[in-house]
Q: What sequence folds into this?
Protein backbone atom coordinates (compact mmCIF):
# COMPACT_ATOMS: atom_id res chain seq x y z
CA UNK A 1 0.00 0.00 0.00
CA UNK A 2 2.76 2.39 -0.95
CA UNK A 3 0.25 4.71 -2.58
CA UNK A 4 -1.17 5.47 0.89
CA UNK A 5 2.16 6.58 2.27
CA UNK A 6 2.23 9.83 0.35
CA UNK A 7 -1.30 10.97 1.27
CA UNK A 8 -0.71 11.94 4.89
CA UNK A 9 1.22 14.71 6.65
CA UNK A 10 2.13 12.96 9.91
CA UNK A 11 3.67 9.65 10.80
CA UNK A 12 0.40 8.53 12.37
CA UNK A 13 -1.80 9.22 9.33
CA UNK A 14 -0.58 6.40 7.07
CA UNK A 15 -1.20 3.77 9.75
CA UNK A 16 -4.71 5.15 10.31
CA UNK A 17 -5.44 5.12 6.60
CA UNK A 18 -4.04 1.62 6.29
CA UNK A 19 -6.23 0.46 9.18
CA UNK A 20 -9.32 1.96 7.51
CA UNK A 21 -8.29 0.44 4.18
CA UNK A 22 -7.95 -3.02 5.69
CA UNK A 23 -11.04 -3.04 7.93
CA UNK A 24 -13.86 -1.29 6.07
CA UNK A 25 -16.59 -3.63 4.88
CA UNK A 26 -16.76 -1.99 1.46
CA UNK A 27 -14.39 -3.28 -1.19
CA UNK A 28 -11.71 -0.81 -2.31
CA UNK A 29 -9.82 -1.26 -5.55
CA UNK A 30 -7.00 1.09 -6.53
CA UNK A 31 -6.50 1.25 -10.30
CA UNK A 32 -3.39 2.69 -11.97
CA UNK A 33 -3.28 4.71 -15.20
CA UNK A 34 -2.97 1.46 -17.18
CA UNK A 35 -6.23 0.16 -15.66
CA UNK A 36 -4.35 -2.50 -13.72
CA UNK A 37 -5.24 -3.18 -10.09
CA UNK A 38 -2.58 -1.47 -7.96
CA UNK A 39 -4.04 -2.36 -4.58
CA UNK A 40 -7.03 -4.12 -3.05
CA UNK A 41 -8.31 -4.42 0.49
CA UNK A 42 -9.55 -7.65 2.12
CA UNK A 43 -13.18 -6.77 1.33
CA UNK A 44 -12.21 -6.58 -2.36
CA UNK A 45 -10.79 -10.08 -2.12
CA UNK A 46 -14.11 -11.26 -0.73
CA UNK A 47 -16.26 -9.55 -3.33
CA UNK A 48 -14.16 -10.57 -6.36
CA UNK A 49 -12.96 -14.00 -5.26
CA UNK A 50 -9.34 -13.16 -6.15
CA UNK A 51 -6.65 -12.80 -3.53
CA UNK A 52 -4.68 -9.54 -3.31
CA UNK A 53 -1.65 -11.37 -4.75
CA UNK A 54 -3.72 -12.45 -7.75
CA UNK A 55 -5.17 -8.97 -8.24
CA UNK A 56 -2.30 -6.53 -7.71
CA UNK A 57 -0.30 -5.85 -10.84
CA UNK A 58 -1.96 -8.71 -12.74
CA UNK A 59 -5.70 -8.14 -13.21
CA UNK A 60 -7.04 -5.54 -15.63
CA UNK A 61 -9.97 -3.67 -14.13
CA UNK A 62 -12.15 -4.51 -17.13
CA UNK A 63 -11.81 -8.17 -16.15
CA UNK A 64 -13.69 -7.29 -12.96
CA UNK A 65 -16.04 -4.57 -14.16
CA UNK A 66 -18.65 -5.77 -16.65
CA UNK A 67 -20.22 -2.36 -17.20
CA UNK A 68 -22.35 0.34 -15.61
CA UNK A 69 -26.10 0.15 -15.32
CA UNK A 70 -28.10 2.93 -16.92
CA UNK A 71 -31.73 3.61 -17.79
CA UNK A 72 -31.42 1.50 -20.94
CA UNK A 73 -28.87 -1.26 -20.30
CA UNK A 74 -28.22 -3.38 -17.25
CA UNK A 75 -24.51 -3.28 -18.04
CA UNK A 76 -22.81 -0.94 -20.53
CA UNK A 77 -19.27 0.31 -21.11
CA UNK A 78 -20.49 3.43 -22.88
CA UNK A 79 -19.39 6.62 -21.08
CA UNK A 80 -17.23 4.60 -18.70
CA UNK A 81 -16.83 6.07 -15.22
CA UNK A 82 -13.09 5.25 -15.36
CA UNK A 83 -12.61 8.25 -17.64
CA UNK A 84 -14.14 10.69 -15.15
CA UNK A 85 -12.60 12.45 -12.18
CA UNK A 86 -15.35 11.45 -9.80
CA UNK A 87 -18.64 9.56 -9.90
CA UNK A 88 -20.28 9.63 -6.46
CA UNK A 89 -22.80 6.86 -6.94
CA UNK A 90 -23.69 4.34 -9.61
CA UNK A 91 -24.36 0.65 -10.15
CA UNK A 92 -22.02 -1.70 -11.94
CA UNK A 93 -21.74 -5.41 -12.52
CA UNK A 94 -18.83 -7.33 -11.05
CA UNK A 95 -17.45 -10.57 -12.45
CA UNK A 96 -15.83 -12.81 -9.86
CA UNK A 97 -12.96 -15.23 -10.24
CA UNK A 98 -15.35 -18.15 -10.71
CA UNK A 99 -17.24 -16.33 -13.47
CA UNK A 100 -20.31 -15.21 -11.56
CA UNK A 101 -21.71 -11.78 -12.30
CA UNK A 102 -23.86 -9.67 -10.01
CA UNK A 103 -24.66 -5.97 -9.43
CA UNK A 104 -22.93 -3.84 -6.81
CA UNK A 105 -23.29 -0.24 -5.67
CA UNK A 106 -20.16 1.76 -6.53
CA UNK A 107 -18.49 5.13 -6.36
CA UNK A 108 -15.18 6.32 -7.78
CA UNK A 109 -12.73 9.18 -7.46
CA UNK A 110 -9.25 10.03 -8.73
CA UNK A 111 -6.28 10.59 -6.43
CA UNK A 112 -2.86 11.88 -7.43
CA UNK A 113 0.43 11.34 -5.62
CA UNK A 114 4.10 11.42 -6.65
CA UNK A 115 3.79 7.91 -8.08
CA UNK A 116 1.05 8.90 -10.51
CA UNK A 117 -2.70 9.04 -10.91
CA UNK A 118 -4.93 6.41 -9.35
CA UNK A 119 -8.61 5.63 -9.69
CA UNK A 120 -10.12 4.52 -6.37
CA UNK A 121 -13.27 2.44 -6.79
CA UNK A 122 -15.41 1.56 -3.78
CA UNK A 123 -17.83 -1.35 -4.15
CA UNK A 124 -20.65 -2.50 -1.91
CA UNK A 125 -22.29 -5.90 -2.34
CA UNK A 126 -26.02 -5.32 -2.80
CA UNK A 127 -27.07 -8.93 -3.37
CA UNK A 128 -28.39 -9.47 0.17
CA UNK A 129 -30.16 -6.12 0.16
CA UNK A 130 -31.69 -6.89 -3.23
CA UNK A 131 -32.78 -10.32 -1.99
CA UNK A 132 -34.48 -8.71 1.01
CA UNK A 133 -36.07 -6.09 -1.21
CA UNK A 134 -37.31 -8.79 -3.57
CA UNK A 135 -38.80 -10.74 -0.67
CA UNK A 136 -40.44 -7.57 0.65
CA UNK A 137 -41.88 -6.86 -2.80
CA UNK A 138 -43.15 -10.43 -3.10
CA UNK A 139 -44.82 -10.22 0.32
CA UNK A 140 -46.38 -6.90 -0.64
CA UNK A 141 -47.72 -8.32 -3.92
CA UNK A 142 -49.01 -11.44 -2.16
CA UNK A 143 -50.77 -9.20 0.34
CA UNK A 144 -52.33 -7.16 -2.48
CA UNK A 145 -53.51 -10.35 -4.21
CA UNK A 146 -55.06 -11.70 -1.01
CA UNK A 147 -56.72 -8.37 -0.25
CA UNK A 148 -58.05 -8.12 -3.80
CA UNK A 149 -59.37 -11.68 -3.58
CA UNK A 150 -61.15 -10.95 -0.29
CA UNK A 151 -62.59 -7.70 -1.63
CA UNK A 152 -63.91 -9.53 -4.70
CA UNK A 153 -65.34 -12.31 -2.53
CA UNK A 154 -67.10 -9.68 -0.43
CA UNK A 155 -68.50 -7.93 -3.51
CA UNK A 156 -69.78 -11.14 -5.15
CA UNK A 157 -71.23 -12.33 -1.85
CA UNK A 158 -73.08 -9.05 -1.38
CA UNK A 159 -74.35 -9.12 -4.98
CA UNK A 160 -75.61 -12.69 -4.57
CA UNK A 161 -77.37 -11.84 -1.33
CA UNK A 162 -78.79 -8.45 -2.29
CA UNK A 163 -79.33 -9.13 -5.99
CA UNK A 164 -80.01 -12.75 -6.90
CA UNK A 165 -81.16 -13.66 -3.40
CA UNK A 166 -83.68 -10.84 -3.18
CA UNK A 167 -84.94 -11.55 -6.69
CA UNK A 168 -85.54 -15.22 -5.84
CA UNK A 169 -87.30 -14.24 -2.63
CA UNK A 170 -89.59 -11.89 -4.58
CA UNK A 171 -90.37 -14.71 -7.03
CA UNK A 172 -91.17 -17.01 -4.12
CA UNK A 173 -93.59 -14.47 -2.60
CA UNK A 174 -95.23 -14.00 -6.00
CA UNK A 175 -95.68 -17.74 -6.43
CA UNK A 176 -97.32 -18.01 -3.03
CA UNK A 177 -99.71 -15.19 -3.90
CA UNK A 178 -100.63 -16.79 -7.22
CA UNK A 179 -101.16 -20.11 -5.49
CA UNK A 180 -103.87 -18.53 -3.34
CA UNK A 181 -106.01 -17.93 -6.42
CA UNK A 182 -108.78 -20.24 -7.55
CA UNK A 183 -106.76 -22.49 -9.82
CA UNK A 184 -107.02 -26.02 -11.06
CA UNK A 185 -105.45 -28.59 -8.76
CA UNK A 186 -102.85 -29.59 -11.33
CA UNK A 187 -101.74 -25.95 -11.70
CA UNK A 188 -101.56 -25.54 -7.91
CA UNK A 189 -99.39 -28.65 -7.63
CA UNK A 190 -97.12 -27.35 -10.37
CA UNK A 191 -96.82 -23.99 -8.56
CA UNK A 192 -95.92 -25.80 -5.34
CA UNK A 193 -93.16 -27.67 -7.18
CA UNK A 194 -91.86 -24.39 -8.57
CA UNK A 195 -91.96 -22.89 -5.05
CA UNK A 196 -89.85 -25.77 -3.73
CA UNK A 197 -87.37 -25.33 -6.57
CA UNK A 198 -87.17 -21.60 -5.81
CA UNK A 199 -86.61 -22.30 -2.09
CA UNK A 200 -83.77 -24.69 -2.94
CA UNK A 201 -82.23 -22.14 -5.33
CA UNK A 202 -82.54 -19.43 -2.67
CA UNK A 203 -80.82 -21.68 -0.14
CA UNK A 204 -78.01 -22.47 -2.56
CA UNK A 205 -77.47 -18.78 -3.30
CA UNK A 206 -77.41 -18.07 0.44
CA UNK A 207 -74.83 -20.81 1.02
CA UNK A 208 -72.69 -19.57 -1.86
CA UNK A 209 -72.75 -16.04 -0.47
CA UNK A 210 -71.73 -17.28 2.98
CA UNK A 211 -68.96 -19.47 1.59
CA UNK A 212 -67.55 -16.58 -0.39
CA UNK A 213 -67.53 -14.16 2.54
CA UNK A 214 -69.77 -14.62 5.60
CA UNK A 215 -71.26 -11.33 6.74
CA UNK A 216 -70.76 -12.50 10.34
CA UNK A 217 -66.99 -12.26 9.83
CA UNK A 218 -67.22 -8.52 9.17
CA UNK A 219 -70.14 -7.76 11.48
CA UNK A 220 -69.46 -9.99 14.50
CA UNK A 221 -65.89 -11.26 14.17
CA UNK A 222 -63.98 -14.52 13.86
CA UNK A 223 -65.61 -16.55 16.65
CA UNK A 224 -69.26 -16.13 15.58
CA UNK A 225 -68.26 -16.66 11.93
CA UNK A 226 -66.31 -19.86 12.58
CA UNK A 227 -69.01 -21.12 14.96
CA UNK A 228 -71.59 -20.71 12.20
CA UNK A 229 -69.25 -22.29 9.64
CA UNK A 230 -68.62 -25.26 11.94
CA UNK A 231 -72.36 -25.99 12.15
CA UNK A 232 -72.75 -25.93 8.37
CA UNK A 233 -69.56 -28.00 8.01
CA UNK A 234 -70.87 -30.68 10.40
CA UNK A 235 -74.16 -30.88 8.50
CA UNK A 236 -72.41 -31.10 5.12
CA UNK A 237 -69.68 -33.63 5.94
CA UNK A 238 -71.13 -35.44 8.96
CA UNK A 239 -68.01 -34.65 11.02
CA UNK A 240 -68.44 -33.63 14.65
CA UNK A 241 -66.87 -30.22 15.30
CA UNK A 242 -65.91 -28.74 18.65
CA UNK A 243 -64.97 -25.14 19.35
CA UNK A 244 -62.90 -24.29 22.42
CA UNK A 245 -61.92 -20.75 23.42
CA UNK A 246 -59.51 -19.49 26.07
CA UNK A 247 -58.71 -15.95 27.15
CA UNK A 248 -60.32 -12.75 25.89
CA UNK A 249 -63.02 -12.93 23.23
CA UNK A 250 -62.13 -9.53 21.76
CA UNK A 251 -62.28 -8.46 18.13
CA UNK A 252 -59.09 -8.39 16.06
CA UNK A 253 -58.06 -6.35 13.05
CA UNK A 254 -59.95 -7.36 9.91
CA UNK A 255 -56.82 -8.84 8.30
CA UNK A 256 -56.18 -11.01 11.37
CA UNK A 257 -59.76 -12.30 11.56
CA UNK A 258 -59.81 -12.99 7.83
CA UNK A 259 -56.51 -14.89 8.01
CA UNK A 260 -57.67 -16.97 11.00
CA UNK A 261 -60.97 -17.75 9.27
CA UNK A 262 -59.40 -18.76 5.95
CA UNK A 263 -56.71 -20.87 7.62
CA UNK A 264 -59.31 -22.62 9.78
CA UNK A 265 -61.58 -23.12 6.78
CA UNK A 266 -58.74 -24.61 4.71
CA UNK A 267 -57.63 -26.91 7.54
CA UNK A 268 -61.16 -28.22 8.09
CA UNK A 269 -61.72 -28.73 4.37
CA UNK A 270 -58.46 -30.70 4.12
CA UNK A 271 -59.56 -32.88 7.03
CA UNK A 272 -62.86 -33.62 5.32
CA UNK A 273 -61.26 -34.35 1.93
CA UNK A 274 -58.19 -36.32 2.88
CA UNK A 275 -58.17 -37.35 6.55
CA UNK A 276 -61.35 -39.46 6.89
CA UNK A 277 -61.82 -37.79 10.29
CA UNK A 278 -64.74 -38.28 12.67
CA UNK A 279 -64.03 -35.28 14.90
CA UNK A 280 -62.41 -31.87 14.41
CA UNK A 281 -61.50 -29.66 17.36
CA UNK A 282 -60.92 -25.93 16.90
CA UNK A 283 -59.10 -24.18 19.74
CA UNK A 284 -58.62 -20.41 19.93
CA UNK A 285 -56.47 -18.94 22.69
CA UNK A 286 -55.91 -15.22 23.23
CA UNK A 287 -52.69 -14.67 25.19
CA UNK A 288 -52.82 -10.88 25.02
CA UNK A 289 -49.67 -10.36 22.97
CA UNK A 290 -50.59 -13.07 20.48
CA UNK A 291 -53.47 -15.23 19.32
CA UNK A 292 -53.10 -18.97 18.75
CA UNK A 293 -55.39 -21.12 16.65
CA UNK A 294 -55.25 -24.91 16.53
CA UNK A 295 -57.27 -27.18 14.24
CA UNK A 296 -56.98 -30.85 15.21
CA UNK A 297 -58.56 -33.93 13.67
CA UNK A 298 -58.53 -37.64 14.53
CA UNK A 299 -58.11 -38.70 10.93
CA UNK A 300 -55.61 -40.80 9.04
CA UNK A 301 -52.78 -38.25 9.23
CA UNK A 302 -49.91 -38.09 6.76
CA UNK A 303 -46.16 -37.81 6.45
CA UNK A 304 -45.39 -34.08 6.63
CA UNK A 305 -42.46 -34.66 4.25
CA UNK A 306 -44.92 -35.85 1.61
CA UNK A 307 -47.47 -33.05 1.82
CA UNK A 308 -47.71 -32.53 -1.95
CA UNK A 309 -48.37 -36.23 -2.47
CA UNK A 310 -51.45 -35.84 -0.28
CA UNK A 311 -52.71 -33.14 -2.62
CA UNK A 312 -52.84 -30.48 0.11
CA UNK A 313 -49.58 -28.70 -0.62
CA UNK A 314 -51.12 -25.59 -2.18
CA UNK A 315 -53.59 -25.16 0.69
CA UNK A 316 -50.91 -25.50 3.34
CA UNK A 317 -48.73 -23.06 1.41
CA UNK A 318 -51.61 -20.58 1.43
CA UNK A 319 -51.98 -20.98 5.20
CA UNK A 320 -48.32 -20.22 5.75
CA UNK A 321 -48.43 -17.22 3.42
CA UNK A 322 -51.42 -15.71 5.20
CA UNK A 323 -49.79 -16.10 8.60
CA UNK A 324 -46.37 -14.97 7.38
CA UNK A 325 -47.81 -11.74 5.97
CA UNK A 326 -48.96 -10.89 9.51
CA UNK A 327 -45.66 -11.81 11.13
CA UNK A 328 -47.08 -15.17 12.28
CA UNK A 329 -46.22 -18.83 11.86
CA UNK A 330 -47.98 -22.06 10.96
CA UNK A 331 -46.77 -25.43 12.22
CA UNK A 332 -48.06 -28.82 11.05
CA UNK A 333 -47.89 -31.91 13.21
CA UNK A 334 -49.02 -35.19 11.73
CA UNK A 335 -48.03 -38.77 11.11
CA UNK A 336 -49.87 -41.68 9.47
CA UNK A 337 -52.67 -42.96 11.69
CA UNK A 338 -52.18 -40.23 14.31
CA UNK A 339 -54.34 -37.39 13.03
CA UNK A 340 -53.24 -33.85 12.17
CA UNK A 341 -52.76 -30.64 14.12
CA UNK A 342 -52.45 -27.24 12.41
CA UNK A 343 -51.20 -24.58 14.84
CA UNK A 344 -51.19 -20.87 13.99
CA UNK A 345 -49.57 -18.10 16.02
CA UNK A 346 -49.96 -14.38 15.21
CA UNK A 347 -48.32 -11.69 17.41
CA UNK A 348 -50.70 -8.85 18.26
CA UNK A 349 -50.74 -5.33 19.65
CA UNK A 350 -53.08 -4.29 22.47
CA UNK A 351 -55.58 -3.20 19.82
CA UNK A 352 -55.61 -6.62 18.19
CA UNK A 353 -53.60 -5.56 15.17
CA UNK A 354 -50.69 -7.61 13.77
CA UNK A 355 -47.56 -6.60 15.67
CA UNK A 356 -45.05 -6.83 12.83
CA UNK A 357 -47.10 -5.23 10.06
CA UNK A 358 -47.52 -1.52 9.37
CA UNK A 359 -51.31 -0.87 9.51
CA UNK A 360 -50.99 1.39 6.45
CA UNK A 361 -50.05 -1.62 4.32
CA UNK A 362 -53.41 -3.35 4.68
CA UNK A 363 -57.04 -2.31 4.29
CA UNK A 364 -59.34 -2.39 7.27
A:
Amino acid sequence: MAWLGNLGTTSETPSLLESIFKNVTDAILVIDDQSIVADANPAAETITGWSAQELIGKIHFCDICRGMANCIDEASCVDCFEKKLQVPSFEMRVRTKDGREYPVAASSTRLTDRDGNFLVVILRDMSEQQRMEQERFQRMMTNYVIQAQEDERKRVSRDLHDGVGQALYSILVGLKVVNQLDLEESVKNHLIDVQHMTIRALEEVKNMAIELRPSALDDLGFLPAIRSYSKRFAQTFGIETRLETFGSKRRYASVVETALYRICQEAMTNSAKYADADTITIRLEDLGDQVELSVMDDGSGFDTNEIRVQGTGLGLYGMRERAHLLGGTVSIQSSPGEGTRIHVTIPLTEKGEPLHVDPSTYSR
